[in-house]
């Protein structure tokens, strides 16, 4: 199980530039910390699942880029030009469609993620694992409960590809109850 170090560096640099001025909500921590944590979770899950035939480069690139379309000035076409259609399609699936009503966005994204394959499914689970560490201080108890329920929807919809990540996500969902 190997990955292309140069491709990783190129993708990391692209993501770092795209998210350069962005901070994690309610904190004075660069957003790149979240991107790095999701990528680490993804790589850890892959390493704990050697029986799977993973496209490690695809998984790592999608992890590094998972928020560039949703949260920055970067669009789908730019990701295609920089990294190819397969990576761009994965990143687009991980991007909520803001033209839909808020209550439909996650299910729509999950449907598109499932169509992309196991690497993109894994990235979404790892994204939620990292997001369940600590909620923004300004979130209400109701928002935190909703976020936990959404985490369960993610697990229920995407499970079946990586028991290691699924167990980690289930543990984080359960532990998140302490925040409300």
Tell me what you see in this structure:
- It is built from 10 helices and no strands.
- Helix content is 67%, strand content 0%.
- It has one domain (5-179): Hypothetical protein af1432, CATH 1.10.3210.
- The radius of gyration is 15 Å and the shape is globular.
- It is mainly α.
Give a quick set of tags describing it.
Hypothetical protein af1432; 180 residues; 67% helix; mainly alpha
SSE arrangement:
Blueprint: H1 5-18, H2 32-47, H3 56-65, H4 68-71, H5 76-83, H6 85-93, H7 102-116, H8 118-131, H9 141-158, H10 163-175
Helix pairs in contact: 1-3, 2-3, 2-8, 3-6, 3-8, 5-6, 7-8, 7-9, 8-9, 8-10, 9-10
Give the C-alpha Rg.
15 Å
The gross shape turns out to be globular
Element-level helix/strand string: HHHHHHHHHH
Share in helix: 55-70%
In CATH terms, the superfamily is Hypothetical protein af1432
How confident is the prediction overall: mean pLDDT?
96
**What low-confidence regions span 5 or more consecutive residues with pLDDT below 50?**
none
- What is the fold-level CATH name, i.e. the topology? Hypothetical protein af1432
Distance between the termini: 40 Å
| DSSP E strands, number | 0
By secondary-structure content and strand pairing, the structural class works out as mainly alpha
**Major β-sheet profile:** none
Tally the helices: 10
Into how many domains do the coordinates divide? 1
CATH architecture: Orthogonal Bundle
């Amino acid at each position: 199980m190997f990955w292309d170090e140069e491709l990783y560096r190129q993708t990391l640099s692209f993501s770092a530039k795209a998210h350069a001025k962005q901070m994690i909500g309610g904190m004075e921590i660069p957003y790149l910390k979240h991107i790095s944590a999701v990528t680490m979770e993804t790589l850890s899950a892959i390493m704990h699942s050697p029986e799977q035939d993973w496209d490690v480069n695809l998984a790592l690139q999608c992890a590094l880029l998972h928020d560039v379309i949703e949260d920055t000035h970067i669009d789908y076409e730019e990701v295609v030009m920089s990294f190819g259609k397969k990576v761009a399609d994965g990143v687009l699936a991980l991007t909520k469609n803001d033209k839909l009503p808020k209550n439909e966005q996650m299910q729509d994204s999950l449907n598109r993620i499932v169509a992309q394959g196991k690497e993109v499914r894994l990235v979404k689970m790892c994204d939620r694992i990292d997001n369940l560490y600590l909620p923004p201080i300004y979130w209400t108890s109701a928002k935190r409960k909703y976020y936990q329920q959404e985490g369960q929807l993610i697990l229920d919809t995407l499970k079946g590809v990586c028991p290691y990540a699924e167990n980690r996500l289930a543990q984080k969902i359960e532990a998140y109850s302490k925040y409300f």
